[in-house]
Amino acid sequence: MYGSALNHFDNQRPCNEEATEIANQMRYQIEAAMNQKFELWEPTFYCTRYREGTDYRIKIKIGEVNRYIHVKIHKPENGGDLQLLTYVGGKVYHDPI
Question: pTM for this structure?
Answer without folding.
Answer: 0.90
